[in-house]
């Protein structure tokens, strides 16, 4: 089965700061497309595409959809890095039944996100 969601744009206020943050948290490469004021998180063909977008028409949100970012096997590390970036931890690491563990933070750009690990 293919993914229900193919891609999403995550609004950011400072693209370069967001790239540094997400590269550390997700332990991945992020490709800057400067002329578009966007960056694309490295992905494989069957994965959901995450784009960081710096745009006047999009605003970061603490109240909207909660996106879960896969940090499997590195949740404690990702939380530590989030704290180093002075991110607010809303919910500490906790078990979510058979679905693993999650923590909820406010990223460097003001978005509420979940860090998820099995």
Describe the structure.
By secondary structure, this protein is an alpha/beta fold. The protein has two helices and eight strands; from the N terminus they run βαββββαβββ. The protein has a four-stranded mixed beta sheet, with helices on one face. α1 (15-26) packs antiparallel against α2 (75-84). The chain is globular, with a radius of gyration of 14 Å.
Question: How are the secondary structure elements laid out?
Answer:
Blueprint: E1 7-11, H1 15-26, E2 30-33, E3 38-41, E4 49-53, E5 67-70, H2 75-84, E6 88-95, E7 101-106, E8 112-117
Helix pairs in contact: 1-2
In short:
The chain has 118 residues and is α/β, with parallel strands linked by helices.
Compute the number of structural domains. Answer: 1
Taking the alpha carbons of the first and last residues, their distance comes to: 21 Å
Strand order of the largest sheet: 1-4-3-2
Architecture, CATH level 2? Roll
Largest sheet: 4 strands, mixed
Number of strands: 8
Radius of gyration: 14 Å
* Order of secondary-structure elements: EHEEEEHEEE
Please state the structural category.
Answer: alpha/beta
Overall average residue pLDDT: 95
Which CATH top level class fits? Alpha Beta
In helices, the fraction of residues equals: 10-25%
CATH superfamily: 2,3-Dihydroxybiphenyl 1,2-Dioxygenase, domain 1
Low-confidence stretches: none
CATH topology term: 2,3-Dihydroxybiphenyl 1,2-Dioxygenase, domain 1
Shape: globular
Quickly count the helices: 2
Percentage beta strand: 35-45%
